[in-house]
Specification:
207 residues; mainly alpha; 3 strands; 57% helix
């Protein structure tokens, strides 16, 4: 039977399963609560204060009064357009001044307690009596191997000097070769650690 959120050392958030290491000093319920956070304040709709509306109205009236006094403007359509323009300027100015003076309330800091996500195939292959620490270890080793495999496959291509173009330089070739060697070394180390885990959990054998 696959490991799921009912395991005493695990919890689920959506479709993801997490294990809580025993040395964190926090229990599963506390850790799960730290991962189940409400919607971010960034997405909340801003509130319009009455002073901002007053600023917009005052801006529109001021522009209209200036236009009437300076150029004897009497066209209702033109005055309406001037009022809208002045209102937008006044609204933006009042909003900016209010934000600058009062500032925003500090957003609550989201602190997630330590937990390790368990890959689906690790959860399916793990024995029912596996501890949370074992699940953490197997998950970390598995993800490390897969990351090393992807890095090795994406290592820079080393051009063959027999077919390299005149524009290619020895420095570029050396850098690519060094990056490829480091990726290969990291992969070999990760594969060595992953092999017993793959055998235990019935995962795909490293290639």
């Amino acid at each position: 039977m696959a490991i799921n959120g009912s395991h005493p050392g695990c919890f689920a958030v959506g479709a993801r399963l997490y294990a809580v290491p025993s040395d964190t000093g926090h229990d599963v319920a506390e850790t799960q609560a730290s991962w189940a956070r409400p919607r971010s304040p960034h997405h909340r709709r801003p509130r319009i204060h009455w002073s901002v509306v007053v600023g917009g109205v005052a801006g529109g009236i001021l522009i209209d009064a200036s236009a009437i006094r300076s150029s004897n403007l009497a066209d209702p359509v033109a005055l309406l357009m001037m009022f809208i323009l002045g209102g937008l300027v006044g609204f933006a100015s009042a909003y900016g001044i209010r934000e600058a003076c009062l500032g925003r309330k500090p957003e609550p800091e989201v602190v997630r307690l330590p937990a390790v996500e368990i890959p689906g195939d690790v959860a399916r292959g793990a024995p029912d009596d596996a501890t949370a620490d074992e699940l953490v270890l197997w998950s970390v080793v598995t993800k490390r191997y897969r990351a090393a495999l992807a890095a090795r496959d994406d290592a820079p291509f080393v051009p063959d000097p027999r077919v390299s173009t005149p524009s290619s330089t020895g420095a570029t070739t050396s850098t690519a070769a060094a990056a490829g060697a480091l990726a290969e070394l990291a992969y070999i180390t990760a594969r060595h650690d992953f092999e017993p885990v793959a055998e235990l959990l019935g995962l795909a054998t490293p290639r």
